[in-house]
Design a protein that fits this description.
The structure holds two protein chains of two kinds. By secondary structure, chain A is mainly alpha-helical. Chain A contains seven helices and three strands. In chain A, helix 2 (about 55-75) runs antiparallel to helix 5 (about 130-145), helix 3 (about 80-95) runs antiparallel to helix 4 and helix 5 (about 130-145) runs antiparallel to helix 6. The longest helix of chain A is centred in the last third of the chain and has 23 residues, at about 150-170. In chain B, the strands form two sheets. Chain B has a five-stranded parallel β-sheet with strand order 3-2-4-5-6, sandwiched between helices. A two-stranded antiparallel ribbon of chain B has the order 7-8. Chain B contains five helices and nine strands; from the N terminus they run ββαβαβαβαβαβββ. The chains are: A mainly alpha, B alpha/beta. At the A-B interface, strand 1, strand 2, strand 3, helix 1 and helix 2 of A face strand 1, helix 1, helix 5, strand 7 and strand 9 of B.
Chain lengths: ~190, ~200
């Protein structure tokens, strides 16, 4: 690949430098208005994503299976650093992808599991039943998504999971006020793309 | 007096500014194959042709060196080393051919402390999942059309973390010293706009 080494203008001050790199990308900017019949790039990308969406249900299934396997490993071996990370990453990916895949109500349950794993100082004290309830909730919300009142049930279920999780986390972090502030001040996972 | 403004913002460049995507080279680094596919789909939808992928921080750094991308889009949580560490490795003056590359961090982490940590590592733009075509487009337009200067101190090298100047700010100026000599002035070669 050819080198794209940058040059830059540098101004030096008392304790810092301000560097203005050459903007090689500026030449790719255009403020020309769209021509009649020309597609807006955002619309074009959304259409491309819509065409891909036939895959999303199977992708969500695969992510739920991955979460389930991570849960099984924790149940079998109890918490190790490796299986805790695997469980967290599986839940974290679902939290980030669920809305894109068309299942936004799944994200909050996955987020609650992430919080449980991230903010517990000693993972061995996490009740495995609470882990199981989270994973079962994620799977159930996904599985029953087509049911008419699934989103209301998901909201109720997730709210209760979150309450139980927060009670546990506050208890476990009673000597760490800065963590409690994060726990009580952290906003819920966004359920829809911006 | 200026005030340090924390965090990231989509910027003021809206949909009226467009980019010739087919001349930009992207590197997408994410350990999740589904997310890589989604990003590739969106970027191709915008018109990009050159989209390279890596599935962890180490192969991402290797791909960065090999492909010399214009824009890096990276996840945070990844095996071997994560997106934050990758950013810190890229933002090493003299260590690679483009420490100024635009880095967009796309992550499910949206807590304030995470956003601040990403900013302090030298990330150019932060985009919280779930992803949207509009959000990604805005971040790309912002890094291409409206890049910030870089600041180099003893403890930081990356895009200026002060996005705005607040004329009403009252308080100490944390950056010390008056203006000194301009020590090097290289020509800005490519200020030519694409033909309209």
């Amino acid at each position: 690949m050819p080198s794209r080494k940058d040059t830059a203008a540098v101004a030096t001050y008392g304790d810092h430098e301000v560097i203005t790199p050459e903007n090689k990308l500026r030449k790719y900017v255009s403020e020309r208005p769209l021509l009649p019949g020309e597609d807006d790039p955002v619309t074009r990308a959304e259409q491309a994503l819509a065409e891909l969406s036939t895959e999303f249900s199977s992708w969500m299934e695969a992510e739920c299976d991955r979460l389930d396997k991570a849960r099984e490993a924790v149940l079998k071996e109890h918490f190790t650093q490796a299986n805790q990370e695997a469980l967290f990453h599986a839940a974290h990916d679902i939290k980030g992808e669920a809305a894109t895949f068309g299942y936004p109500a799944v994200a909050a349950a996955a987020d609650s599991l992430c919080r449980l794993l991230e903010y517990t100082p000693d993972a061995s004290r996490i009740p495995l039943k609470l882990v199981e309830q989270h994973v079962d909730a994620v799977r159930a919300i996904y599985r029953e998504y087509a049911v008419s009142n699934a989103k209301e049930l998901a909201a109720t279920l997730t709210k209760r999971l979150r309450e139980v999780t927060d009670e546990f986390l506050i208890r476990e972090n009673r000597d760490r006020p800065e963590v409690i502030e994060q726990i009580t001040g952290t906003a819920a996972a966004p359920l829809a793309p911006e | 007096m200026r005030q340090a403004v924390a965090g990231f913002s989509p910027g003021s460049w809206g949909s009226m500014v467009r980019i010739d995507f087919n001349r930009l080279r992207f590197l997408v680094i994410d350990d999740n194959a589904h997310m890589r596919r989604i990003l590739r789909t969106l970027l191709h939808g915008f018109g990009a042709r050159e989209v390279y992928e890596a599935e962890d921080g180490a192969s991402g750094l290797e791909a960065f060196t090999h492909y010399v991308p214009d824009i890096v889009i990276t996840d945070w949580a990844m095996p071997i080393f994560d997106g934050l560490e990758l950013t810190q490795m890229i933002r090493q003056p003299g260590a690679n051919s483009n420490p100024y590359v635009a880095i967009i961090m796309l992550t499910g982490h949206s807590e304030k402390k995470r956003v601040t940590a990403a900013r302090d590592a030298g990330v150019t733009e932060f985009l919280a999942k779930p992803i949207s075509a509009k959000g990604l487009y805005q971040r790309i337009v912002n890094v291409v059309a409206n890049p910030r200067p870089f600041i180099k101190t003893k403890t930081y090298f990356g895009p200026d973390r002060r996005r705005n100047v607040n004329p009403n700010y009252v308080g100490p100026e944390r950056r010390k010293g008056g203006k000194a000599d301009v020590i090097r002035q290289a020509p800005l070669l490519d200020k030519v706009r694409a033909p309209s």
